[in-house]
Amino acid sequence: xxxxxxxxxxxxxxxxxxxxxxxxxxxxxxxxxxxxxxxxxxxxxxxxxxxxxxxxxxxxxxxxxxxxxxxxxxxxxxxxxxxxxxxxxxxxxxxxxxxxxxxxxxxxxxxxxxx
Amino acid sequence: xxxxxxxxxxxxxxxxxxxxxxxxxxxxxxxxxxxxxxxxxxxxxxxxxxxxxxxxxxxxxxxxxxxxxxxxxxxxxxxxxxxxxxxxxxxxxxxxxxxxxxxxxxxxxxx
Lengths: 115, 111
What we know:
The structure holds 2 protein chains of 2 kinds. By secondary structure, chain A is an all-beta fold. Chain A has strands spanning 4-7, 10-14, 19-25, 30-38, 45-51, 56-59, 62-67, 72-77, 86-94, 104-105, 109-114. In chain A, the strands form 2 sheets. In chain A, strands 2, 4, 5, 9, 10 and 11 form a 6-stranded mixed beta sheet that branches. In chain A, a hairpin with a 4-residue loop joins strand 7 and strand 8. Chain A is globular, with a radius of gyration of 14 Å. By secondary structure, chain B is an all-beta fold. Chain B is 0% helix and 55% strand. Chain B has no helices and 11 strands. In chain B, strands 2, 4, 5, 6, 9, 10 and 11 form a 7-stranded mixed beta sheet that branches. A 4-stranded antiparallel beta sheet of chain B has the order 1-3-8-7, with no helix packed on it. The radius of gyration of chain B is 13 Å and the shape is globular. Chain B starts with a strand and ends with a strand. The interface between A and B is medium-sized, with 21 and 27 residues.
């Protein structure tokens, strides 16, 4: 069964610190892997999209990595800010999926940044 | 999102009452549109998707239905709400190069 699992479920760090969120998936083969940021009560916003052949992709202070051999992805946040408090969701599109209706969503990691 | 409009933002409805959530989008014509539900602590669950006017595909059998009467309008409905219909409902438009744009969502509480 295709699954996407994220860890930790929640994380609290101090402002200015770095953190890394993990995503393990069983989807194989897959077309692309995405990370979204979702503020409370809002819709998710795309951070990064990586195809199966990419190892890393950055978006400002956000850097996503992908290891297709171990089926793991991570999202690293540098110099965290209070506005980074949100849920971060890992999403995988299986290979052969030609539309977003086949996306497999993780449950997300809730990140809280404290001053 | 500026290109997807969802309303209302919050809604409290009694069990057994009807439901109508509307989503309108701007931008390119004939977009692929999606309705998702998000329960607390769970991943997004795809409910319906539409590739064009009058074309609806359902992913999960349930108490809900969807319609697309116009190219840029997507409606989620129910004739009789259940307690289990409570959740955060999101409309999404398929963007260019693998992207989604989400609406701001509707928080539905069935009491």
